[in-house]
Specification:
Layout (H helix, E strand, L loop, with lengths): L3 E4 L15 H11 L3 E5 L2 H7 L6 E2 L6 E2 L12 E2 L1 H23 L8 E2 L12 H4 L11 E2 L5 H11 L1
Parallel strand pairs: 2-5, 6-7
Antiparallel strand pairs: 1-2, 3-4
Helix pairs in contact: 3-5
This protein binds iron/sulfur cluster.
Iron/sulfur cluster binds next to helix 4.
Length: 160
């Protein structure tokens, strides 16, 4: 059973300050930047297993918080229950199968995503090879909206 899915940046951390700060303060700021993002199983036991220093309040390691009475603080926790976790896993399977089917049927368009103007081509090292250019016929972005986990769960509940 998954306890969560997390990620954090491996990039070298830079700390900005407008005044001289101590080594400890720098370390604290760097640690903050390493707090993992993602989704956790909303269960106090699981949260405490992910962060064994946490009794109550927000975790410095994972996107979760526990109330003073010892329950999951839903407002500060990016979490789902077991059933919702399974639904999200099924959704990922469904999307992978859809993409695989499209590739197998020959659909291999160059169609980079465009999420509110944010595109991957900006930092891509293959620009000269792929030749994507919106001025050329047939070259279009795949405009996507950010789907929240709640939207996906609702959609999947209606389909399964
Ligand atoms: S430049 Fe080409 S390969 Fe790179 S992200 Fe854009 S479409 Fe994809």
């Amino acid at each position: 059973m998954p306890a969560g899915i997390f990620y954090f940046s491996l990039l070298e951390q830079m700390v900005k300050a407008d005044k001289k700060i101590s080594e400890e303060e720098i370390e604290e700021l760097i640690r903050k930047n390493f707090k993992m993002k993602g989704l956790i199983l909303a269960d106090v036991k699981v949260i405490r297993m992910n962060d064994n220093t946490l009794t109550s309040g927000s975790s410095k390691l994972v996107p979760a918080a526990i109330t003073t009475s010892g329950s999951v603080n839903e407002k500060w926790t990016n979490g789902v229950d077991k059933e919702e976790f399974k639904i999200l896993q099924d959704y990922i399977d469904y999307v992978i199968k859809q993409i695989s089917k499209e590739i197998m049927s020959g659909k291999i368009d160059i169609k980079p995503y465009n999420k509110n103007g944010k595109i991957p081509c900006e930092y891509c090292g293959y620009k000269t090879i792929c030749g994507f250019n919106t001025r050329q016929k047939g070259n279009n972005y795949n405009y996507i909206d950010k789907k929240s986990k709640d939207d996906i769960i609702q959609k999947m509940k209606g389909e399964i």
